[in-house]
Every structure is written in structure tokens, then in C-alpha cells.
Write a structure and sequence with these properties.
alpha+beta; GIY-YIG endonuclease; Nucleotidyltransferase, domain 5; 5 domains; five-stranded mixed sheet; 19 strands
Length: 635
């Protein structure tokens, strides 16, 4: 909770911010120790800085936390917004403020290591050691070194395990790589030292000279072996040539007609984010970088800040940068990058074709990386991120509530509420509602009542952040514009800002689109989001109709008992609770029925003969030792 002193100090900061000029510039936020915790730029300082100390409704958690630690601020006027951008980059580099996006620059040199000895091994290394090994490099990209080493070991069937040769030759069984023909398995003892060293030599030629030169050399060796009638050796060389060509085909999948460019994509969850960067050189993917970080706020602002930080610590700036979504001040950033690179740099958001496919692939990899840190699948992370983009949400909806109404000709009106957390059903949070205020078939009125009751429960449980005490990031109604129009006033009266959309079905009762105020959003082309919304719609419909059938069954069962003379709703309910089912009541004897709660002997007899009309009428019960035994009148 915000204290009175904090609220007072915030008002003082806002009053000071309102006195700032409407000029471009840079502002620095300080905490109580005087440390710079955030640096920002603004086209109009007064407007931008005052927003921090106004209403918190439009602030994300990161901004609220930053504002809570601000003790004072200072500012520097600039002649233009572009100068403010340049100064901001310089100050962030100088102060490394806590609440700015900060990237760790780990682009050191990397090497390919070839160990010494009669059985040399090829591996990747971060630095040169004085160990007698040969080092090839340096290379800037650790990813490209790892990819090259992995591919080389597979093509030339060289071991990647930790076994030592010749000490462990002939000991133990070969691993899986031998059986899938990705290792010659020196551990089996069937590969001579000379053959092994020849394979290593060919692998190094491939690493140093590239695939074209390596194929040419291997082809000459293959033809020479065939001329010498060394068919087994020729076949082995042929297989290596084929493997190199297949690797080239796989690389073409991740290729671009644009010779030099960077592709950047962002994936977000409620409290974490991931930026993925694909770097292309000569039309081929030459490097890949992943940046995992905490909450980054709105995607548009996050992309802008990431571009500033990333290219502040990179010497190579490509002529084209493709993003997965719009960035704030993209024209300004493009100008800054152009001046920094000394040539024209374009920042674009591809909408179709090859570039859009590359961006989608980059985003998919970002989602997979983020999912691994959260114990989720990449598909779930991608679906939530895609849904947020479609609906224009500031961040992916981690907690989604969905509602559906079920009735039969206006009878037994009920509603079901299902919850999806992080893209998965959270069944412990499912809730059932009996409609109280609406009679007849009125889905709009029923939804208004249900949402109103749900928000009332939130007010009762506020602060618990569990069950009804937690507000959803998104509400999805099973229906279209009519359902949204009916529920929207309820949300507005509550003063809560919860995104509200509908799920529209086609004539085959399948999800077709998402309804919003004034129109629809097609989702069929967005596979991940489409699958998620379809799952939510099917689940809420199943849950609501299941509850309705359950109530109808109870009513049907109860009416079969209340139709018996002397059995009212209370006795019928007691009998069902005692025996469990109507079938068990039917099979019970008079004595067992009479022993049930709320039952008397006359009532038990009436129940028994209602289910067994073929039995003879019972005589009056005696007070003797056979009390309670049914006797025929003839007795």
C-alpha cells in the first residue's frame, strides 16, 4: 500500500514535472541514494515526465515499481528529438540504469579446437589454452562455431563423446550416434588410427575451406578410389559428399534474398521477455543471439529501447533491420543507425513473403527460448503472444476467463466460467453459476448477472490474488457483438479496465473469429492463436452444458421421488443423499427406507410400493417381535 508520505511526494514530483518546458530533451530519475535508475528521452519533456506521476491505470508493473523508487529527477534540454536519442544512448551506457533495458555484451572471440595426439578431437573453445592443441579462429559468433563443429562431426562421423582414445578402445558398447551413422565409433576398435586421422584431416579442410572446396576435394578422392577399385572407400567418400550437400539444402531453408540484414523478434509473458536476433550475411544465417530479460513493458516501446541498446554495442549495422512489430520512433532510430553506420539503414516490419516468414521463424525461436525458462511449451508461449498482437493488448494475457450460458428453452439457466493460465486450463479456478435474476431464455441478461456477481466477488476478496480475488487479463465471451454490448456497461460501471472480446462460431459450430466493439478480427491465419481460442471456446461450452445437464438430471431424479405421495423435496433430497442414486432407493427394503433420515414407516411403505406396484398390499404392522415385517392380508 502507498503511504501518505509517498502519495504526497508523488504529487510534489508531478507539480514539478508540470513546470517543465515543452522542449525535447532527456530526463534522469534518481533514487534516495542519488543513483540514476532510469534514463528516458522525450519530444516534450513536460508531457512525458508528468505522465509518470499521474494516474497509474496505464502503467505496467515495471513502470509502477520504478516510480515508487523515484526520489527526484533532472533533465537536459536538446535542440531536437534526434539529439535527445543520441544523448540518451550515451547516458544509459554511462550509468547502466536499473529500469532501462540492459544487454550483456558477451560477444567475445571463439575458436575451433583440435586436440593433439594420435586420436585428435574437434571441439569448440572460448579461449586459447597452452595445452598443445591447434586452434582455428578467432570467430565472433559462438553460435556459428557451435553449428560448424556439430555439423562437421556428423558429416565426417567423428566422436563427440568424452571417451579417451586409445585408452578406451574396445571397452563398452558404442552409443546411439554409431547406430544412426553419425559416428565411426573408435571405441569399437574397428577404425584404424590412419583412417581416423584421414577423416579428421578432411573435416578440417571442410572447416577451413567451406563446403564448395571440400566437395571438390572429396570428389577427386572418390574418383581416384574408384579408379583404384577401392569401392568401399569410394562409397564412404560419396556418403560424405551427400551429407555436405544435404547440409547445404538445410541451410537454404534459413536463407534470405537480402544479402545482409538482421531479423529481430520479441516474445513476452506476464513478467518475462525474450528478444531473438537472426543475423544474415551473404544471404545466409551467420549468427543468432538470444536475450532473456524481465518485464519490458509495452512491445512497441520495448522494441525501440532494445534497438538502441543492441546497436550501441555492435560495430556491424546492416542496411536492413526487419522487426516483428512496430517500434516507437522507428524513423528516428533509422536516422540514428544511418548516421552511425555511415550508409542508409532501413527499419521495417514485413507483412508478407519471404521476409515475413523469416520474422515468424525468429519469433517462434524467441517463444521457444522463453518457454524453456518458464516450464511451458513454445507453442503455448507463441499462442499467447500472437493473441496479444491480434487483440492489441499491451502484453500477453497470462490469466484468461471465459464465460458461456446454457439453458433449455429458458429452463434451468446456468453459466460456466473456465480459466486458462499461461495457455493451459486451470481447473481449480473453474466456477459454476445458477442464474437468479433472469427468467426465460435471455443470454444477454444472464451474462450481465454473471459478470456482475463475479466482479462483486472480486471486491469481497480483493488483495488475496487467488480465485475471485484475482482479476483476469482478458475476458472471452462465447458469443458475438450482442454479448459484448450487454456486458460492457457492467465493466464500465465497476471502473475496472479488463479487455473484453467475444468468440464467434460458424454455422458448423466451430470458432470463426473474435468479436470486438464494432467488428470482428479474423484469426484463422494465425494458427497458434486460433488453436488457443478454439480450445477455450470448446472448453467453456463443454463445462457450461455439462453443468446444465447435471442440474436437469438432478431435477429429473428428484421429480421421480417427489411424485410419490408424502415425499416432498426435503425427503427426496435426504433419500438421495443417504442412498446415492434412485436405483439404490428402488432396491431398498421397507426397513432400509424407514431407517433413512427424515423417513417414517408409512412414508417408507409408500416409496417401496411406488417402485414395486406388483407387490401385494401390506397389512398393518404388529407390535410383536416381527415388527416391521411386511405381511399379506391373508396372514
Amino acid at each position: 500500500m502507498v503511504s501518505i508520505e509517498q502519495e504526497k511526494h508523488k504529487k510534489e514530483l508531478r507539480a514539478r514535472a508540470m513546470r517543465l518546458p515543452l522542449n525535447p530533451g532527456v530526463y534522469l530519475m534518481h533514487d534516495k541514494t542519488g543513483k540514476v535508475i532510469y534514463v528516458g528521452k522525450a519530444k516534450a519533456l513536460k508531457n512525458r515526465v508528468s505522465q509518470y506521476f499521474g494516474s497509474e491505470k496505464n502503467h505496467n508493473a515495471k513502470v509502477r515499481q520504478m516510480v515508487a523508487h523515484v526520489d527526484t529527477f533532472e533533465y537536459i534540454l536538446t535542440d531536437s528529438e534526434f539529439e535527445a536519442l543520441v544523448l540518451e544512448c550515451s547516458l544509459i551506457k554511462q550509468y547502466s540504469p536499473k529500469y532501462n533495458i540492459l544487454l550483456k555484451d558477451d560477444k567475445g572471440y571463439h575458436y575451433i579446437r583440435v586436440s593433439s595426439g594420435p586420436w585428435p578431437r574437434i571441439s569448440e573453445a572460448k579461449q586459447i589454452a597452452d595445452d598443445g592443441a591447434e586452434y582455428i579462429g578467432p570467430y565472433i559468433s559462438s553460435w556459428s562455431v557451435k553449428q560448424s563443429v556439430d555439423e562437421t562431426l556428423k558429416i565426417f562421423r567423428l566422436p563427440s563423446c568424452t571417451r579417451k582414445f586409445p585408452q578406451e578402445i574396445g571397452r563398452g558398447r558404442p552409443c546411439l550416434y554409431y547406430y544412426i551413422k553419425q559416428c565411426c565409433a573408435p571405441c569399437r576398435g574397428k577404425v584404424s588410427e590412419a583412417e581416423y586421422r584421414e577423416s579428421v584431416g578432411e573435416a578440417l579442410e571442410f572447416l577451413r575451406g567451406g563446403s564448395t572446396k571440400s566437395i571438390r576435394a572429396l570428389t577427386d578422392k572418390m574418383n581416384d578410389a574408384a579408379d583404384r577399385l577401392q569401392f568401399e572407400r569410394a562409397a564412404r567418400l560419396r556418403d560424405r559428399i551427400t551429407a555436405i550437400r544435404k547440409m547445404g539444402e538445410r541451410q537454404k531453408v534459413v536463407a534470405s534474398r537480402v544479402k545482409e540484414q538482421d531479423v529481430i523478434a520479441l516474445t513476452q509473458s506476464a513478467d518475462k521477455s525474450c528478444f531473438e536476433v537472426f543475423r544474415f550475411l551473404n544471404g545466409k544465417l551467420c549468427d543468432r543471439e538470444t536475450f532473456l530479460m524481465g518485464e519490458t513493458g509495452r512491445a512497441k516501446e520495448a522494441r525501440s529501447e532494445f534497438l538502441e541498446r543492441y546497436y550501441s554495442m555492435r560495430d556491424r549495422i546492416p542496411p536492413r533491420i526487419s522487426l516483428d512489430g512496430p517500434a516507437e520512433n522507428s524513423a528516428l532510430i533509422s536516422r540514428w543507425l544511418t548516421e552511425k553506420a555511415g550508409r542508409n539503414v532501413t527499419v521495417t516490419v514485413p507483412q508478407k513473403g519471404e521476409q515475413a516468414q523469416l520474422v515468424a521463424m525468429c519469433r517462434s525461436n524467441a517463444a521457444e527460448q522463453l518457454a524453456q525458462t518458464m516450464g511451458r511449451t513454445g507453442r503455448e508461449t507463441s499462442a499467447l503472444d500472437e493473441l496479444a498482437r491480434l487483440l492489441g493488448l499491451p502484453e500477453p494475457p497470462a490469466y484468461i476467463e471465459s464465460y458461456d450460458i446454457s439453458n433449455l428453452a429458458g429452463g434451468e439457466n446456468v453459466a460456466g466460467m473456465v480459466v486458462f493460465e499461461n495457455g493451459r486450463p486451470l481447473r481449480s479456478a473453474y466456477r459454476k453459476f445458477k442464474i437468479r435474476s433472469v427468467m426465460g431464455q435471455d443470454d444477454y441478461g444472464s451474462l450481465r448477472e454473471v459478470i456482475g456477481r463475479r466482479l462483486e466477488e472480486y471486491r469481497k476478496n480483493i488483495g488475496t490474488n487467488e480465485g475471485f480475488g484475482r482479476l483476469p487479463d482478458l475476458i472471452l465471451l462465447d458469443g458475438g457483438k450482442g454479448q459484448i454490448s450487454a456486458v460492457r456497461p457492467v465493466l464500465e460501471e465497476s471502473g475496472l479496465q479488463i479487455p473484453l472480446f467475444g468468440m464467434v462460431k460458424d454455422d458448423k459450430h466451430r470458432t470463426r473469429a473474435i468479436a470486438k466493439d464494432g467488428g470482428e478480427i479474423a484469426i484463422s491465419s494465425n494458427r497458434s492463436a486460433f488453436t488457443l481460442v478454439s480450445s477455450i471456446q470448446e472448453e467453456v461450452h463443454r463445462f457450461a452444458i455439462g453443468y446444465h445437464r447435471q442440474l436437469r438430471k438432478k431435477v429429473s431424479i428428484s421429480s421421480s421421488l417427489t411424485g410419490i405421495e408424502g415425499i416432498g423435496p426435503a425427503r427426496a433430497k435426504a433419500l438421495l443423499r443417504h442412498f446415492g442414486t434412485v436405483g439404490a432407493v428402488r432396491r431398498a427394503s421397507v426397513e432400509e427406507l424407514a431407517a433413512a433420515p427424515r423417513m417414517t414407516m408409512p412414508a417408507a411403505q409408500k416409496v417401496f410400493f411406488a417402485f414395486h406396484p406388483e407387490e401385494p398390499a401390506c397389512a398393518a404392522l404388529t407390535d410383536g417381535p416381527d415388527h416391521g415385517i411386511i405381511k399379506n392380508k391373508s396372514d
